[in-house]
Design a protein that fits this description.
Rossmann fold; six-stranded parallel sheet; two-stranded antiparallel ribbon
Length: 189
């Protein structure tokens, strides 16, 4: 399994100017923050289940930019219906990446359904995604990075990561109003 923070950092390293990043509640936001402060990042702090709808809206509103969503298995399992909505709308500039450690890390490490027989890639395919992958090693991660930067094609990636206890790395803008204004200014420039 891959390590979460080096994985996120690798995917965003030397990213093109048109690549926007959104992260889900908890660990995904700490991972995005640990990858480096960037005004083109927007991390959710206290709104579980809202990152995917936000990323979808952003992809629709910003069709010339690539949108990368980093979220966790617990958050995506909470509202699987968003995968069907995303697939049916089919924004060509969105890449949904689930950092799947098979546990609810924020609440004590209880196993999620992906620790059992649930396969998020198969669920995404069933929802209508045609471009999917499950990433388990560095070679698959390099291919995902190329797909992420391709700037065309809706993609779903389930990234299998190790369960790790890591220090929290808070976003530069922890206040919601400040964070959204900073992000809006960055994408309006």
């Amino acid at each position: 399994m891959l390590q979460r923070r080096p994985t996120v950092k690798f995917l965003l390293e030397d990213r093109p100017q048109n690549l926007l990043a959104v992260s889900g509640l908890g660990s995904s936001t700490w991972d995005l923050s640990a990858a480096g402060d960037n005004a083109r990042n927007f991390g959710f702090i206290g709104a579980m289940g809202q990152a995917a709808p936000f990323a979808l809206g952003l992809a629709i509103a910003q069709p010339t930019r690539r949108v990368a969503l980093f979220t966790g298995d617990g958050e995506i399992l909470m509202s699987l219906g968003i995968l069907a909505t995303i697939a049916n709308i089919g924004p060509e500039n969105l890449c949904v990446m689930v950092l799947d450690n098979e546990s609810y890390s924020e609440t004590g490490g209880q196993p999620t359904a992906t620790a059992g027989p649930t396969d998020l890639e198969l669920i995404a395919k069933g929802a209508g995604f045609t471009n999917t992958s499950t990433v388990r090693d560095d070679s698959e991660l390099a291919a995902l990075r190329e797909s992420l930067r391709a700037a065309s094609g809706l993609h779903f990636a389930n990234i299998k990561i190790a369960t790790e206890e890591l220090p929290l790395v808070f976003p530069n803008s922890f206040d919601g109003v400040t964070a959204i204004n900073r992000f809006r200014d960055a994408i309006s420039a």
